[in-house]
């Protein structure tokens, strides 16, 4: 945030001129990078601090009767609402089901809250709702309660959807960045960057020869297969806002360890690589919606990979790196040409409104 | 909806002119009246139909391990964000906690999803978040997981908040409109119309001599006291969008019974009554955020009333009517002057964006 602020004076509260950029919400506060982190650390965490609040992970694990319940939420504001490979409806169902699975929980129930803009074509809403129905079937979750609000034209943007999800934890592992250990192998379930570039290309009307399709999918299925097989998972994370790089940096920081990854082992579709080069993006930072990393001990890695590759959603799964003791809180990439590069959180908004 | 549509041709999908009002979302689809009902019946219910989906009640009761879990969600789009007696933050916490209690569940955990508009003053967000913290303390719920999205200026309206809530059902009653029986007494916890008129007056900048304060409060507390005392509750409903009249009509329709209520027994603050008269609203249809109805058998009514009146939030509680066999699916009001009036759902949007 510091960088972005250099040009702007810090106006104290007594100064009656228009607020500086530092005093207002910027697009980058929603980008999943440094400014999102800062917003969480400065505003949300101090207010909501409690033993269950989980700001370093995709959801919270909660006591419920004798059992253990996972809860998560995401709002979806993707633009365009419909894009190659999915739409805001499938995204809202898969995204939240995937987040539950990343906490090691079986997704059970979803709520759906709609904020519709006046004038939205009813046919668009119908398409999105049908897509949610099919996605819920695929992800084996039930949409059990909902709410609809309508805002005047110009006060929203077509459809925003919030889904919250409840799942059941059926094992005794603590799946969390803090459980990551030195020596763990980093598994990646598939190729990266497809969702972000599919949405970007659709939004900008870019006519690539082979249109890029979002990878939007219920990878919860894959994660549950690993759990059901008794793989001792230390941490899982789906690679949404901020992509693979951001997920790894956040995990390295929370785990207080180092992660070394090999760029050659990270699959990127040719069309995605091409679009990234044309548009100036780094595929490692581009969002996915059907792709995750899993941290497992070396002894479990081969078994876990075999399970992942056995599922169509995990065909390209591979080991991309390893956890080491030092340098702490850092992610080091060995590039295709053999040099090393330190990965960090992005300062600004890379791709706005991709989920 | 039929009435509102009479002037507009029904353009089939092949007709390439701009969509008619029937084919697009209107503000009234979010008003809690007939058009909201139609949207649910025509779009949401067919897609999400499953044994748990609950469209006639404030939340869903779900199996979880051996226990029984309640889940609910609401998005909040109130304008202005801060109003006399509360703000969008306290509303988002109390509203969802209250909905859980209306299902007969003890509120435990909330998720919070923020959709922020670029340029929102950070101080406003801080105020709202602090207010959520205090409201969570009052309602005895914990905010355990969250999400923040930012949309560009002009694509949102300051702050939208979604809260989803999870609660535990600790009793064996089926608290639902279908459990209402002929002979049940209708209890009302407090005076009606305050929240809607407080927001309306703030939005329109109306300078009433005594500014109306919203009744925004954790009435979940009151509902739980009734449950803890073993009162056999047949149905509860908080009187949000559409107010007391809409809640009663919906319950009468689902229960397939008649509800007779006495206008003289329904408390309305003098300032609220005055504002309603000036602005042309009927307080029976104006939203509340700290007020609910409870349906109990005659034998339990006095005991229930005593418990409610013993709590500051229920000081004005009273019996306002009774359930009868016929005429089915109808609500009959005995007015102050002794005549009778049939209450129905409103066709359009009465007060937009009051929650």
SSE arrangement:
The structure is a homodimer of 355-residue chains.
Chain A: H1 2-5, H2 34-48, E1 60-64, E2 67-76, E3 82-83, E4 86-87, H3 88-102, E5 105-117, H4 122-139, E6 142-151, E7 159-169, E8 185-188, H5 194-204, H6 220-228, E9 233-238, H7 243-255, E10 258-262, H8 270-279, E11 292-296, H9 298-309, E12 318-324, E13 330-334, E14 340-343
Parallel strand pairs in A: 5-6, 10-13
Antiparallel strand pairs in A: 1-2, 2-7, 3-4, 5-7, 8-11, 8-12, 9-11, 10-12, 13-14
Helix pairs in contact in A: 3-4, 3-6
CATH level 4 superfamily of the domain at 177-343 in chain A: PurM-like C-terminal domain
Named CATH architecture of the domain at 177-343 in chain A:
Alpha-Beta Complex
User: What is the top-level CATH class of the domain at 177-343 in chain A?
Assistant: Alpha Beta
Low-confidence stretches of chain A: 1-19
Mean pLDDT across every amino acid position of chain A: 90
Question: Mind describing the biggest β-sheet of chain A?
Answer: 7 strands, mixed
- What's the helix count of chain A? 9
Overall structural class of chain A, as computed from helix and strand content, comes to: alpha+beta
What percent of residues of chain A adopt helix (DSSP H or I)? 25-40%
Q: Which strand-content bin applies to the residues of chain A? A: 25-35%
Large-scale geometry of chain A: globular
Count of distinct strands of chain A? 14
Q: Please tell me how large the radius of gyration of chain A is.
A: 20 Å
For this structure, the quaternary state is homodimer
Strand order of the largest sheet of chain A: 9-11-8-12-10-13-14
CATH fold-level label of the domain at 177-343 in chain A: Phosphoribosyl-aminoimidazole Synthetase, Chain A, domain 2
Ends apart, CA distance between termini of chain A: 22 Å
What's the helix-strand series of chain A?
HHEEEEHEHEEEHHEHEHEHEEE
């Amino acid at each position: 945030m510091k960088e972005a602020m250099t040009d702007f004076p810090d106006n104290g509260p007594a100064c009656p001129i228009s607020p500086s950029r530092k005093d207002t919400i910027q697009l980058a506060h929603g980008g999943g990078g440094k400014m999102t982190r800062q917003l969480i650390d400065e505003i949300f965490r101090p207010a909501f601090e409690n033993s269950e609040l989980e700001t370093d992970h995709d959801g919270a694990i909660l006591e419920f009767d004798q059992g253990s319940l996972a809860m998560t939420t995401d709002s979806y504001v993707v633009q365009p609402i419909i894009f190659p490979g999915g739409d805001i409806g499938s995204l809202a169902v898969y995204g939240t089901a995937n987040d539950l699975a990343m906490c090691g929980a079986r997704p059970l129930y979803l709520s759906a809250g709609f904020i519709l803009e006046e004038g939205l074509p009813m046919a668009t809403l119908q398409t999105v709702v049908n897509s949610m129905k099919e996605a819920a079937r695929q992800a084996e979750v039930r949409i059990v309660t909902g709410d609809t609000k309508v805002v005047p034209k110009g006060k929203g943007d077509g459809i925003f959807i919030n889904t919250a999800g409840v799942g059941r934890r059926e094992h005794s592992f603590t799946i969390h960045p803090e459980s990551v250990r030195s020596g763990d192998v980093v598994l990646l379930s598939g190729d990266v960057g497809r969702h972000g570039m599919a949405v970007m290309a659709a939004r900008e009307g870019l006519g690539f020869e082979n249109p890029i399709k979002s990878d939007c999918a219920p990878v919860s299925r894959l994660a549950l297969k690993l759990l059901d097989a008794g793989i001792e998972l230390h941490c899982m994370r789906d690679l949404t806002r901020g992509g693979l790089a951001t997920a790894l940096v956040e995990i390295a920081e929370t785990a207080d360890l180092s992660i070394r990854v090999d760029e050659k082992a990270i699959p990127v579709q040719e069309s995605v690589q091409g679009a990234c080069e044309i548009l100036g993006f780094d595929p490692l930072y581009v969002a996915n919606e059907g792709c995750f990393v899993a941290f497992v001990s070396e002894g479990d890695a081969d078994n876990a990979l075999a399970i992942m590759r056995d599922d169509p959603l995990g065909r390209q799964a591979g080991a991309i790196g390893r956890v080491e003791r030092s340098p702490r809180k850092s992610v080091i990439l060995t590039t295709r040409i053999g040099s090393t590069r330190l990965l960090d959180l992005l300062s600004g908004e890379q791709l706005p409104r991709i989920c």
